[in-house]
Design brief:
Largest sheet of chain B: 6 strands, mixed
Distance between the termini of chain B: 47 Å
Number of helices of chain B: 13
Order of helices and strands of chain B: EEEHEHEHHHEHEHEEHEHEEHEHHH
Radius of gyration of chain A: 26 Å
Strand content of chain B: 25-35%
Oligomer: heterodimer
CATH topology of the largest domain in chain B: Rossmann fold
Largest interface: A-B, 33 and 42 residues
Helix content of chain B: 25-40%
Number of strands of chain B: 13
Number of domains of chain B: 2
Distance between the termini of chain A: 36 Å
Strand order of the largest sheet of chain B: 5-6-7-3-8-9
CATH superfamily of the largest domain in chain B: P-loop containing nucleotide triphosphate hydrolases
Shape of chain A: globular
Helix content of chain A: over 70%
Number of helices of chain A: 25
Chain lengths: 553, 309
């Protein structure tokens, strides 16, 4: 391999010795193989998951909507603002292909966009930031070879995903024309974001900055098409849709009219973006971006200089992100609960499992949503509390511990942040869940009721936070693995325990299922028990942290 | 500040599992003095410093910091101590200026005038994100925070790691200034010139044990100086004099090692040979240090000489 490589590089350099432009691409083939070698597993997993989802969803929808009558019934109620805003207009909802589009197309398109954004940055700007590109460019490698190889691999990846998604649908007996259009529409979205990430990688100076820039573009594209779909005339979105690359994919109307010409827009835009990225790269130095790395403030704000303020400042981005996600989720769940309950057959095993045996299916579903929401917020709390261990491992705790702050005080400041933020998130998301459900049934009183029901999960969240502290103090090296595994099992048992056939006494007694749900009789006993457990774990953890040696990674 | 010793460590022991990091280490820093702390990688310097900071707990012996117990009174003591690690880890998304403020605030000791002064001395741009700082610049952040503080004791663990020679000069000035302000400094270092220039006392450790400590003069006292001199007559006569070692001659120019206490006798023996251009070099710190390591430690004089050339 090495011998072949060096021969090729030399040959490439000699062949292209005449002009800078040709020279710029020397070593392209080697870089393609290099990138594939470093990313094949990632690419393979993404491909299998995305294409596999198509197959799985077709099968599950065949079970959910076995007869044409079921599909027609679904089509008559599918066109709600929530569906339009989140997954697009249900223009062919009476066919399995159309239902497939409603259920999974948007997820696939956005996931594929995320995948290429991260992959392009990982092999582009992030490598450059780490200084490894400099190492390669110091050898015989054209100016554009590495970047172009990166974009080419990712473009190839979207083509493969598009083809496999189409094949997956065809294998499940969906119309060939519709399936191919669907595959192509996904590919089109993916390609545009390869171009977006390519340009972002030239503009930003850090991998983080490049990802942020691309994700912002993706977010705007998603919101623009959501607005277009909400302003629909029947099942045709408004003209705004043409301003969004995701809209172009939707406009191909797979399993409906099957239009191919919007694909030209996607491909054309990709080529233009690629050309812009090349021009930008031609004019800049290795390691430099076009956008300067923004300078920050000269001094810390008064709040940042307090331990809790510092913890808040360091987690600012993550807190904002989780808050937006959780609140949008709550609004969505609340607004679709009634529609979902109407769809589900109250006696089916699935319905029973999700509603926790509640007689009132809507209340049962809402209770399930509130618990899911609490689990989501606990995941945030876990991640936030985990900085107690992460900062000790990466050496930043040493910086703080050698100042005038006790370890207990330091750890508490790191635990109060997730505790406080999760309290607010539970309250707000419960309120929004209730408010959006209340709006759909015309009962504004639901907001307060759900806010309280959601807050009932606060002790459970505190228990997770305290457990993180306990593990960080007693099992520092294994702490992250242990806490995330335990939490993962809790999520599985709490949400799908029935479907997985876990014993009843376990299902009913996790820190999440033991909490009384909306619509059930309220009892404070479980909350007190869970809260007391949290206190014990926290005290044991804090005491241990105080007396043990600092243990860095 | 009534304590005579800012740092008083006696017979300190620490083990990690079966590995003995410290085996009876002694270290003293007199109040108001600069103490050098020398030892190769892995000899226990950072472990000692982490015990002094209450980050690790000693398994035996005693350690006193500014008259207090570094483990029990950690928080109180840290108000009076400033620490610079050899490899500073900062918060990547905060600027250097923010990090300095936070580190100072944790000691409740934010003096913007002093911070500004040291920022300028070290030529550090405080508006850059720590992510974009080089190793040397991260080091400067911790140094600015330490020097700008009014801590009585500065604990510096290989602080000039990654600094360029100009900045090392600035660092030297800052340490002297700190000493002038009456502060005590514990300076762990690999750079002999730096220690020789700055330190009043030196402690040399090996394998977690103190092998040599005292002022540089004291350390040199029992060591051999090197004398180079031009003489008339037969240099062979000199080799018979007590206390002369490794005599070599290059024409009339001879050089030899001589024990400190044999010097009067050697001088008497030299006088009749009409000595000219006499140069006497005391052992450098590097030679003192190397005596305790590698081949010197095994007292293999000739081989060692060959190796050091």
């Amino acid at each position: 391999m090495t011998a072949v490589t060096s021969e090729r590089v030399t040959a490439g350099a000699q062949r292209s010795g005449r002009g800078r432009t040709v020279d710029g691409y020397a070593g392209f083939g080697i870089m393609v193989r290099f990138i594939l070698r470093r990313n094949w597993l990632r690419i393979l997993i993404w491909t299998i998951v995305l294409a596999g989802l198509v197959v799985v969803v077709v099968q599950s929808q065949r079970v959910t909507f076995p007869t044409q009558a079921d599909r027609d019934a679904y089509a008559s109620i599918a066109n709600t603002p929530s569906v339009a805003a989140l997954t697009g207009l249900p223009y062919a909802a009476s066919t399995i292909g159309g239902i497939l589009n409603i259920k999974i197309w948007m997820t696939l398109a956005v996931s594929l966009a995320f995948a290429v954004i991260f992959l392009v940055t990982r092999n582009g700007r992030a490598e450059e930031e780490a200084g490894r590109t400099e190492l390669l460019r110091g050898g015989v490698l054209g100016q554009h070879a590495y970047s172009l190889a990166d974009w080419a691999v990712n473009a190839g990846f979207t083509v493969v995903v598009g083809i496999l998604c189409a094949l997956g649908a065809i294998s499940q007996g969906l119309p060939v024309n519709g399936a191919l259009t669907m595959g192509a529409s996904l590919m089109g979205v993916g390609l545009v974001f390869v171009g977006v990430a390519a340009v972002a990688g030239q503009l930003a100076q850090t991998g983080r900055g490049a990802n942020t820039l691309s994700v912002v573009v993706l977010g705007v594209a998603y919101l623009v098409r959501a607005a277009a779909d909400l302003q629909a005339h029947g099942d045709n979105p408004s003209g705004l849709s043409w301003l969004s690359p995701i809209g172009w994919g939707q406009q191909m109307r797979s399993y409906g009219e099957n239009l191919w010409w919007p694909l030209a827009l996607s491909v054309g835009t990709t080529v233009v973006l690629g050309a812009i990225a090349l021009l930008l790269e031609r004019g800049r130095d290795v390691g430099e971006g076009i956008l300067p790395d923004r300078s920050g403030p000269r001094h810390a704000a008064a709040l940042t200089m307090t331990p809790i303020g510092l913890a808040l400042r360091l987690q600012r981005g993550s807190i904002i992100g989780w808050t937006i996600g959780v609140l949008i989720g709550a609004l969505f769940y609340g607004s679709v609960a009634t529609a979902m309950a109407n769809l589900l057959d109250g006696n089916s095993a699935v319905a029973q499992a999700f509603s926790g045996g509640s007689k009132d299916l809507v209340a049962g579903l809402l209770g399930f949503f509130a618990m899911t929401n609490a689990l989501l917020i606990s995941a945030f709390a876990l991640q936030s509390a985990d900085t107690v261990r992460a900062d000790e491992a990466n050496g930043r705790a040493e910086l703080e511990w050698s100042r005038a702050i006790s370890r207990t005080g330091w750890a508490l400041s790191r635990l109060i942040v997730p505790a406080g933020v999760s309290f607010l998130l539970l309250l707000l998301s419960g309120y929004l869940l209730g408010a959006s459900f209340g709006a759909s049934v015309g009962d504004p009183g639901q907001a307060g009721r759900f806010a309280m029901a959601s807050l009932a999960y606060w002790p459970s969240t505190l228990l997770i936070i305290a457990f993180v502290m306990f593990c960080a103090a007693w099992l520092p090296r294994a702490a992250s693995a242990v806490t995330w595994s335990v939490f993962g099992v809790l999520v599985l048992v709490s949400m799908f325990g029935d479907l997985l056939g876990a014993p009843d006494w376990i299902i009913k007694n996790t820190p999440y299922t033991a909490v009384p749900r909306v619509g059930q009789d309220f009892s404070a006993v479980p909350l007190i028990v869970i809260g007391a457990l949290a206190l014990v774990f926290a005290i044991l953890g804090l005491r241990r942290l105080r007396v043990r040696d600092m243990i860095s990674a | 500040m009534t304590e005579q010793l800012a740092v008083d460590v006696r017979g300190l022991e620490k083990h990690f599992g079966s590995v003995h990091a410290l085996n009876g280490l002694d270290l003293r820093v007199a109040t108001g003095s600069v103490a050098g702390f020398l030892g190769p990688n892995g000899s226990g310097k950072s472990t000692t410093i982490r015990i002094l900071l209450g980050l690790l707990r000693a398994d035996g012996g005693s350690a006193t910091l500014l008259g207090g117990d570094p483990w029990r009174d950690a928080v109180e003591l840290h108000r009076r101590v400033a620490y610079v690690a050899g490899d500073v880890t900062l918060w990547p998304n905060l600027t250097g200026g923010q990090a300095i403020d936070i580190l100072s605030a944790l000691r409740r000791d934010v003096d913007r005038t002093r911070i500004e002064k040291y920022l300028q001395l070290f030529e550090l741009d405080p508006t850059k994100k720590a992510r974009s700082y080089s190793k040397g610049n991260r080091q400067k952040v911790a140094l600015v925070a330490a020097f700008a503080s009014r801590a009585e004791l500065l604990i510096l663990d290989e602080p000039t790691n990654g600094l360029d020679p100009l900045m090392e000069g600035v660092f030297t000035d800052c340490v002297n200034e700190a000493k002038g302000e009456g502060r005590s400094v514990l300076l762990s270092s690999h750079i002999f010139a730096e220690v020789e220039k700055l330190c009043d006392t030196v402690t040399i450790i090996r394998d977690g044990r103190t092998v040599e400590s005292g002022t540089l003069t004291e350390l040199r006292h029992l060591q051999r100086s090197t004398i180079t001199v031009t003489i008339d007559g037969d240099p062979a006569a000199l080799s018979k004099v007590d206390g002369v070692y490794g005599l070599t001659a290059d024409g009339p120019r001879v050089s030899f090692g001589v024990d400190e206490n044999a010097l009067p006798g050697v001088m008497r023996a030299l006088a009749p040979l009409s000595p000219r251009g006499l140069i006497s070099s005391p052992p450098s710190l590097e030679e003192l240090f190397l005596r305790h390591y590698g081949l010197h430690a095994d007292d293999a004089e000739p081989t060692a000489k060959a190796a050091s050339r």
